[in-house]
Design goal:
- Helix content is about 50%, strand content about 15%.
- The protein is built from 10 helices and 6 strands, in the order H-E-H-E-E-E-E-E-H-H-H-H-H-H-H-H.
- The chain has helices spanning about 10-15, 30-35, 110-115, 130-140, 145-170, 175-180, 185-190, 195-200, 205-215, 220-260, and strands spanning about 20-25, 40-45, 50-60, 75-85, 90-100, 100-110.
- It has a 6-stranded antiparallel β-sheet.
- The N and C termini lie far apart (about 60 Å).
Amino acid sequence: MSTVPKYPTPKEFLIDLPLYEKVTFQNEDLKEGRELFCFNETLDTYCPECNQHSIFSRIGNHVTTTDASIWVDRGRFSISLGCSRNRKHTLFFLFHADGQTIQKIGQLPSIASLNLFDVKKYSKVLEKRYFQELTKSIGLASHGVGVGSFVYLRRIFEFLIEEAHRNLINDEGWDESNYQTARMAEKIELLKAQLPDFLVENKSMYSILSKGIHELNENECLAAFPVVKLGIEIILDDKLEKMRREQKLAEAKKAIASLASRI
């Protein structure tokens, strides 16, 4: 049975973790912190100067050791990564180790800059307002605003449901009064013919978003944000794939009709 990792991976520390979020390692897990301190792997992420994804690897000196506690109470340490296309294109991350707690205290470019590139494609399947709200949610999370980021993600979720609702509202046999009095999970069931399977199977996402807004604190929302954002992205990926398929079918029909007229 799989288990949820207790700590961010080094790549998550670098690319996803908001500034100032503290991660405290237990005595038996100090080696997990060493993996970040001694990071010397490659990672695939957006290069703002190349304006595309690239492979980055560490530049400058780094410590290689089997001592799991090498980083404990180390104070400030930094990690610089160079782009494989142009080593002058760099990412810089600054951390502070206070006892057995690591906190990211600075980075350049910002988390938002690194993450916004990958969501540009969703502008094709989201109305302009909701695409802007998606980027706002990422920006807020990158600045440590967890609850606010959840507000925008919930609005996007509600838009996806309403979009499906608009597609079915004029269908024969549709019971609008029943829909209006239903809870969100029930609405999703009523609309499942119009919704991606992933959304229908994971309708609990909405209750997670609502609980985040009304009950969870900033840190709890920030910890949950990457998972919920991934869920939203999977739903949007499904919509993108459907759109691409419809475009390809339309192009194929047009091409076949044109060919048939010439033969």
